[in-house]
Every structure is written in structure tokens, then in C-alpha cells.
Amino acid sequence: MTLKTLCNREVLVAYKDDTIFNAAVLMRQYHAGDVIIVEERNGLRYPVGIVTDRDIVIEVIAKELAIDTVTVGDLMCRELVLAQEDDDLLDAIRSMRQKGVRRLPVVDKSGVLVGIFAADDLIGLIAEQLQGAAGLIGKEQAQEKQYRY
């Protein structure tokens, strides 16, 4: 399985000069824990950073900074860990674990943002597969009862 089929194509984005307040409002509105900071070139969005809800709490609120004067460009993590849309799921998981990140912006071969893959997505995928396996066991047991009794 590749990230092309697994990533979420609805990505919250912001620009470097957007305020942290605006990013927080976006996160609240869409129930998300991050925004990807992008630069637009020729109408295409290229990821250059990420700001998470945790970044806002630790670096802005806990330091009592004025949330409407700090920009996402001031706060964003510039060492962005990216994944290619053709990357295999297991490679993406390995990368997340090695780099200690819970979210991977997904880009195409040109580096254009096409989606995001998060640990939450992975947990949902695993839960879905486990539910299918549990259903298989239940079905097998039901068939066995039908034919053996």
C-alpha cells in the first residue's frame, strides 16, 4: 500500500505571515492538530514547515506571548519530514518512528503538497484491519457451528 491511497487529501495550510491565532482558529474549526505552512509558486503549494497545537501551547501560550502577534513562520518547524505519495506504508511508518514525528506531509514527485499522513490515520487503518480479522474469526466460528452440530 502506498501513501497515495492512504493519505488525507484535505490538508490545512497556512502561509508564513499568518498569525498563530488564525492557525489556532483553523485547527479548532476543522478539529485538526496541525497546519502545514506552504509557499505558493505558480499556483502550486510547496510545504516549508508545520505548526502543531502542541507547538502553540509550549512555545506561545506557556511563554505568555501575544498569540495575535506571532506568525506561523516564526513558530514553524523548518526541519520538515516529508513523504512521497509513492512511498510504501511501512517505509512511512519507519520514517515517522526514526524522526519522531506523528505527521508526514505527502508530496508528489515535484514536491507539491498533495496530502498528509498522520499517526491517527495509521491507528484507524490498523483498527479497521483488526475489526476485519475479528469478523473473519466470528464468521468462521458460526460456520463451524452450523456444519458440526
Would you mind describing this structure in some detail?
With 149 residues, the protein is α/β, with parallel strands linked by helices. The chain has helices at residues 3-6, 20-30, 53-61, 72-75, 89-99, 119-148; strands at residues 13-14, 34-41, 44-52, 83-84, 103-107, 113-118. InterPro entries: CBS_dom (IPR000644), CBS_dom_sf (IPR046342), CBS_domain-containing (IPR051462). Keywords: CBS domain, Repeat.
Summary keywords:
CBS-domain; CBS_dom; three-stranded mixed β-sheet; 46% helix; 149 residues; Putative transcriptional regulator, contains C-terminal CBS domains; CBS_dom_sf; CBS_domain-containing; alpha/beta; repeat
What does the largest sheet look like?
3 strands, mixed
Unreliable sequence segments = none
CATH third-level topology: CBS-domain
SS-based class: alpha/beta
- For the termini, the CA-CA separation is 41 Å
How much β-strand is present in the residues? 15-25%
CATH architecture, by name, is: Roll
- Give me the strand/helix succession: HEHEEHHEHEEH
Number of domains: 1
Rounded to the nearest angstrom, the radius of gyration is: 20 Å
What overall form do the CA principal axes indicate?
Answer: elongated
